[in-house]
Every structure is written in structure tokens, then in C-alpha cells.
Amino acid sequence: MTTTPSIKLATQLLTNFRLVIATMFVCCVLYTLLIFGIGQTFVPFSANGYLLHNDKGEVIGSSQIAQSFTKPEYFWPRPSAVDYNAAATGGSNLSPASKELRERAQETISLYGATADNKIPADLVTASGAGMDPHITLAAAEYQLDRVAAARGIDKDTVKKLIAEHTTTPGGFLTNSPLVNVLELNIALDKLNKN
Fold this sequence. Notes:
The chain has about 200 residues and is mostly helical. The chain has helices at about 5-40, 45, 100-110, 140-150, 155-165, 180-195, and strands spanning about 50-55, 60, 135, 165-170, 180. Helix 4 (about 140-150) runs antiparallel to helix 5. The mean pLDDT is about 90.
């Protein structure tokens, strides 16, 4: 007995449909659960987004995403072309010769009170490529030390010690660019004032 073309086609479609469902289950469900389980077991802090909490256990940010700080008692991050909006990361795409970019830089320079004798580190004037860089250079942190110490009414050496405690060199011996995580440093400052 020969099968009709329509029955043969229906059989092939049913086989293909089962194959698609099985593939989707393996790739979308099993693989996702496997990766999620590995992340939660071995690296939960990074798997959950490097979330930082306050004393009440509330999430106050991620150590991997910059936040805007404008009060004088806090260290300020690099400027952001996207206003620190993690949903819309990116640079300004402005040319280095752009008038708008130059005006923004001049505004930032005057905000810090920089002068020819008191030169500002470049990373405090320029945005990162994504606009969400959570780190500033050690030089940029030390540049803000006097302002933060005066605004909080604490000794400069205490603030300098906190900066040193929150300084890392991500590239190890391959780089000589120590970085400071702004959010982590500001959290440490707040805890210092509570003690």
C-alpha cells in the first residue's frame, strides 16, 4: 500500500514539529537552567549583577554601573553622555572638535574649579564609551579628596586611607592604572560617618 503525498507531508511536518519542540526545550529551558544553576552556585555575586546593599538590605546599585553623585560630600564619577541611564548606554558620538563637547568639558572643568595650576585628570572631564564606567582613576579620586573631606568635616588622611582601601589595579602587573570604584567608595564614606 502506497502512502499519499498528503499523508507523507503530514508525517514529515509532525516529525519536524517534534524536533523543533525538543530543540527549543533543550536550548531554551535546560541550557538556561543549567547556566543559571552554575552561576548561582559558583559566582552568585557576579551572576546577580554585582548588586550592593545598604544596611537595611535594600539594593542601592551595582558596582559595575555608574551612578550620578552631585553632592559635595561624595566622590563624583566620570561624566555620562547618557545621563547614567543603563537602559541607553553609549557615547555622545560627538567629534573631538565639537563645540558642544568643548562646552560640556568647560562646564565640568569650572564645576571642579580646575585651573592651569590645578589641572584636572582627564577622566573627570571625558565620558567613557558606554557612559556607565563605575571607576575613576586614583588621580581623579585624589583630586576630589579635599572637597569631600571638607564637606564631611573629616580628616583628609582618613579619606585618603579609604581611597587606598578601595583602589584596585584590574590588569595586575600588566598595567599601572589604579582605579577606584566610585559607588563602593561612597558607601564606605557613608558607613564611616555612621560610626
